């Protein structure tokens, strides 16, 4: 192992771990805002209980996500010093905007929503929830814009060994920013929907907190179904963008070796990079050309058009891409059937389906992880596509130093993962109305005693 490989492994580990928390934060913030809206408009206590409960889980996830994100960013200085020097002028603007316009916004209103909710009006609570949702999603936009610049750099000029910003708008709204942002947000919303659905299903199976569980389940199903279907279209839009701006990446996704008309979409194969061909290939003729060009006769560029040194790892991209797509299609089918059961009014009593929904909570997390693998591994061997190679971007450090830091990251992140799961499970299991309602719970006066209702 060398420094480049170890540094890539370390960043992969920390980035995937951090991204386990980001989608739930993005999606749950939107769902909580909707619940607060319903409470503001209707005054029904059920929506108040729902908003309070999910806000507590949101806070746990948000806190661990922030902690893991901070440690991840340290690596830009420790392991990727040459990269930091190269992109410093470009990344400074969007990352500063993320801190000033997004992180401060969400942090301030999270504090108001969590610690001040019983001291402000329902309307102000709804406004605070909206600001949290806006802040978290705006934060995601700036981070994705910075990352997208690595995929499709724009609005810059090279001065020596540095990229210098020439157009802020072109750099931020580079060709891949919006497709990736939309696709990422939809994945986050699906993650939150499955999380809410799964926890709600758990309560219904246990016959606990049924009122809140039924309401949350309905909201989660509608939310999840909408964005599971939309994800299919945004994924297609993003793939077409990749085909035109990063053709080597798309060719690796499809294990497409020869530039050809009527290019086939490979359903399954065993890619053989050494022989530059696929074994045991099952493909649909002309389908890849049609999906990219809306014309099955158009040519699609193959991997052989690029030198071996400029090709992404084929097998990892090929299989990761198919796992991501397969999970996405499975989630559409699950959400469609669950939506049908909701329409019939039988979902609340379908114990087999509720059990399945509980155990499917990890499904969108896996899809998100494989999605980021194909996005980042597909960019290799470039850390900034076509401009700066990954090998040129690494710091002047030793293998031993990277091994020590990687070991420390594994230990620290394992503790954070345990802490997050422990706190989430504890919060779900101990949930009751006294905890959720707090000082706002109403009291029913009976002869000789008071009973909270």
Helix content: over 70%
Strand content: 5-15%
Number of strands: 10
Mean pLDDT comes to: 83
- Characterize the biggest β-sheet: 2 strands, antiparallel
**Which blocks of ≥5 consecutive residues have pLDDT under 50?**
433-453
Radius of gyration: 24 Å
**Terminal residue distance:** 63 Å
* Tally of individual helices: 17
Structural class: mainly alpha
Q: How would you classify the quaternary structure? A: single chain
Which strand order do you get reading across the main beta sheet?
A: 1-2
Order of helices and strands: HHHHHHEEHHHHEEEHEHHHEEHHHEE
Q: What's the overall geometry?
A: globular
Keywords:
single chain, 453 residues, mainly alpha, two-stranded antiparallel sheet, 17 helices, 10 strands, disordered C terminus
Entry summary:
With 453 residues, this protein is mostly helical. It contains 17 helices and ten strands.
Structural commentary:
- The chain is mainly alpha-helical.
- The chain is built from 17 helices and 10 strands.
- It has helices at 3-19, 22-42, 45-73, 75-78, 81-115, 122-151, 168-172, 177-206, 210-245, 247-254, 287-293, 314-344, 351-359, 362-377, 390-393, 399-430, 433-437, and strands at residues 156-159, 162-165, 260-261, 265-272, 277-284, 299-300, 382-384, 388-389, 443-446, 449-452.
- Strands 1-2 form a two-stranded antiparallel ribbon. The protein has a two-stranded antiparallel ribbon with strand order 3-6.
- Strand 1 and strand 2 form a beta hairpin.
- Helix 9 crosses helix 10, helix 10 packs across helix 12 and helix 12 (314-344) packs antiparallel against helix 14.
- It is globular and about 65 Å long.
- The N and C termini lie far apart (63 Å).
């Amino acid at each position: 192992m060398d420094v480049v490989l170890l540094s890539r492994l370390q960043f992969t580990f920390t980035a995937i771990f951090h991204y386990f928390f980001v989608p739930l934060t993005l999606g749950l913030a939107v769902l909580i805002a909707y619940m607060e809206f319903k409470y503001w408009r209707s005054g029904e206590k059920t929506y108040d209980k729902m908003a309070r409960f999910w806000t507590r889980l949101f806070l746990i996830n948000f806190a661990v996500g922030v902690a893991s994100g901070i440690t991840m960013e340290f690596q830009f200085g420790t392991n990727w010093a040459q990269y930091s020097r190269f992109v410093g002028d470009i990344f400074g603007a969007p990352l500063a905007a993320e801190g000033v316009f997004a992180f401060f916004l969400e942090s301030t209103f999270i504090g108001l929503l969590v610690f001040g909710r019983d001291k402000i009006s329902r309307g102000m609570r709804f406004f605070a929830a909206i600001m949290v949702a806006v802040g978290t999603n705006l934060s995601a936009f700036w981070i994705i814009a910075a990352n997208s610049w690595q995929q499709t750099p724009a609005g810059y000029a090279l001065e020596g060994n540095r990229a210098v910003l020439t157009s802020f708008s072109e750099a931020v709204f580079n060709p891949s920013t919006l497709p990736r942002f939309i696709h990422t947000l939809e994945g986050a919303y699906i993650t939150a929907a499955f999380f809410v659905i799964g926890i709600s299903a758990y309560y219904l199976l246990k016959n606990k907190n049924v009122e809140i569980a039924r309401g949350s389940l309905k909201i989660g199903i509608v939310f999840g179904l909408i964005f599971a279907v939309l994800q299919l279209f945004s994924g297609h839009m993003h793939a077409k963008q990749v085909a035109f701006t990063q053709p080597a990446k798309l060719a690796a996704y499809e294990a497409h070796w020869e530039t050809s008309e009527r290019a086939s979409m490979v359903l399954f194969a065993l890619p053989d990079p050494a022989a530059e061909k696929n074994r045991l290939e099952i493909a649909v003729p002309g389908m890849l050309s049609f999906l990219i060009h809306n014309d099955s006769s158009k040519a699609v560029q193959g991997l052989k058009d690029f030198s071996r040194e400029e090709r992404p790892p084929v097998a990892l991209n090929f299989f990761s891409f198919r796992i991501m797509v397969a999970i996405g299609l499975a989630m559409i089918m699950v959400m469609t059937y669950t939506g049908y059961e909701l329409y019939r009014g039988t979902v609340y009593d379908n114990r087999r389906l509720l059990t399945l929904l509980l155990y499917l909570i990890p499904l969108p997390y896996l899809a998100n992880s494989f999605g980021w693998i194909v996005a980042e591994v597909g960019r290799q061997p470039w850390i900034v596509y076509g401009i700066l190679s990954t090998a040129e971007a690494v710091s002047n450090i030793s293998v031993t130093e990277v091994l020590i830091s990687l070991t420390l990251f594994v230990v620290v992140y394992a503790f954070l993962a345990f802490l997050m799961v422990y706190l989430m499970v504890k919060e779900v299991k101990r949930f009751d109305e006294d905890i959720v309602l707090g000082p706002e719970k109403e009291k029913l006066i009976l002869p000789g005693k008071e009973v909270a209702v």
